[in-house]
Amino acid sequence: MVIKCWLTHLMLLLITWKESLNCSGLTVDPPENLTVVDPGHFGHLEISWSPPGSLINMTNCSTVYHLEYFNTYKNSWNAARMSIRSYSVQFDLMKDIKVRVFTILDGPCTNNKMIKSTNYTELIQKPPSTGIVDTEVQDFICLFHNMEYLECKWRRNPKTPANSKHNLYFWHKKLAQAVDCPNYIVSSGDRSGCNFTGTSLPKFTDINFCVNGSSPKGPLKPAFFSLQIQNHVKPAIANKLRVQTGPDMELRLQWECPAGSVPGHCLEWEVEHSQKGKTPPTKSVTRQTSLTLTSVHKSERNCFRVRSKLSKYCADKSFWSDWSQPICDQEKKEIAPEPQPSVVPVYICIAAAIIAMLVLSLCVGAALKVKKSRQEKRPNALLATLFPRNVTVAAGEA
Ligand SMILES: *[C@@H]1O[C@H](CO)[C@@H](O)[C@H](O)[C@H]1NC(C)=O
Ligand SMILES: *[C@@H]1O[C@H](CO)[C@@H](O)[C@H](O)[C@H]1NC(C)=O
Ligand SMILES: *[C@@H]1O[C@H](CO)[C@@H](O)[C@H](O)[C@H]1NC(C)=O
Ligand SMILES: *[C@@H]1O[C@H](CO)[C@@H](O)[C@H](O)[C@H]1NC(C)=O
Ligand SMILES: *[C@@H]1O[C@H](CO)[C@@H](O)[C@H](O)[C@H]1NC(C)=O
Ligand SMILES: *[C@@H]1O[C@H](CO)[C@@H](O)[C@H](O)[C@H]1NC(C)=O
Q1: Is residue 117 lining ligand 4, measured as CB closer than 6 Å?
Q2: How many Å apart are CA 283 and CA 270, to the nearest integer?
Q3: Which helix or strand (DSSP H or E) is residue 302 part of?
Q4: Which protein residues touch ligand 1 with a CB less than 6 Å away?
């Protein structure tokens, strides 16, 4: 009886062993209990799983996991291998979350051959359906102005109910939890953006944003965004644009990098050259802050303007700066796009000129009067009669 029972056990063991043995050898089950947890970081999710139950009594086996997840930003599958049983990945919460995980066995138990589970454990999670449909904000854009402060803006959805109020929250790895916008941009009574001036945001790390809101009809549909600020730089305008006439048909154009935090070697320039009557303008790109043009027809008026962006050596992408003030080769007086002198000194100059003219005419008048009266007065007395009159006239003018 005992022997029979023992034999059945052996048979069963053999069957299961045979089942788990392919023509090539051992097989392994995929992991179990795959879960994705959202800790409220707007897409930075924690994936975790357990080893397959059939592995629990396997000794001398090293287990590795092969994780695949659908990268919604790049629209492709990404993969990672690890021995740990949890992993954090950035997802776009407005799209489906798709995760797959395989088990891989290695070590003495498999004769040091890598064996991957034929199947995987999969998890597909639909985006949460909170908020009134079609009320999420549109055209969300962030600009890192001259690498000094970040400004994010959005457009309200036309279907947003009246009297709605938007909120922006952000999170990055250095923050324990999401933080409200430090300084909202308000236009025509609505919150239309956030100014992060004075807030230090880390570069080369994902910054996650959530723009949600409330309305008299209920919560608005949240929108989620993730970006790295070094890829959103908009440099300041170039200044001190100068054009010099060279020999023959040559023109030399020079300008200066904008002051601020953007390293000069990171900038790449676009120069637009237009000639009166000629269309369209020609454009050239350079990484220097000067450009020499040959075969320029100087009979025509040549006008230039420049703009810059970060080169591919410094950032994955960048925004163009605004164009500089245009400068033309035949109006050398107006070449420097310096700020206009303020109006106040001009008024002071005019007032001073008027006073000077009045003083001069009074002096001439007084001198004539003195000559006419032919009185012999000492110069001190003459000054004493002039001075109080001047002061009263000047005060009256001012
Ligand atoms: C999977 O989860 C269930 C319930 O949470 C638990 O009973 C089971 O032990 C887990 N499996 C493993 C392999 O950890
Ligand atoms: C693992 O081994 C323990 C005792 O060694 C046994 O009680 C248990 O049933 C085994 N589990 C599996 C899944 O084989
Ligand atoms: C596991 O490997 C060690 C040496 O690497 C060996 O001493 C031990 O007997 C092995 N155990 C089993 C259950 O195979
Ligand atoms: C693989 O796993 C999926 C679910 O994880 C299941 O639907 C499918 O039937 C499995 N395929 C095989 C061949 O076991
Ligand atoms: C954001 O802050 C910066 C720095 O204080 C300021 O120059 C800029 O005008 C602000 N932007 C808006 C839209 O208020
Ligand atoms: C917006 O999101 C923040 C952060 O997740 C949350 O605390 C807040 O309650 C949300 N507001 C609305 C109106 O849903």
Answers
A1: no
A2: 7
A3: strand 302-310
A4: 32-33, 50, 53
Q: Is the pLDDT of residue 331 over 90?
A: no
Q: Tokens 């002096």 sit at which residue?
A: 363
Q: Which span out of 23-32, 281-290, 306-315 was modeled with the highest average pLDDT? A: 306-315
* pLDDT (0 to 100) of residue 251: 84
Given the CA of residue 167, which atom of ligand 6 is nearest to it? 1
Q: State how beta strands 138-145 and 233-234 pair.
A: parallel
Q: Exposed, middle or buried, 10 (CB in 10 Å: 0-12/13-18/19+)?
A: exposed
Q: What are phi and psi of 151, to 5 degrees?
A: -130, 125
Q: Quick check: CB of 149 below 6 Å from ligand 5?
A: yes
Distances (CA, A) of 225 to 29, 47, 73, 152: 37, 20, 10, 11
228 exposure class (CB count in 10 Å sphere: 0-12, 13-18, 19+): middle
54 Rama class: left (phi>0) / alpha (psi -120 to 50) / beta? alpha
In contact, 66 and 104? CB cutoff 8 Å: yes
Q: Which domains does the chain have, with CATH numbers?
A: 19-125 (2.60.40.10), 138-233 (2.60.40.10), 237-334 (2.60.40.10), 356-397 (no CATH)
Residue at token pair 């000639």: 275
d(CA 208, CA 134): 21
- Residue 13 class from Cβ within 10 Å (0-12 exposed, 13-18 middle, 19+ buried)? exposed
Instruction: Tell me the C-alpha distance between 260 and 249, whole Å.
Output: 36
pLDDT digits (tens, 9 = 90+) for 157-203: 999 999 999 999 999 999 999 999 999 999 988 999 999 988 889 99
Handedness of CA 132, 135, 137, 138 (dihedral sign): positive
Residue nearest atom 10 in ligand 2 by C-alpha distance: 57
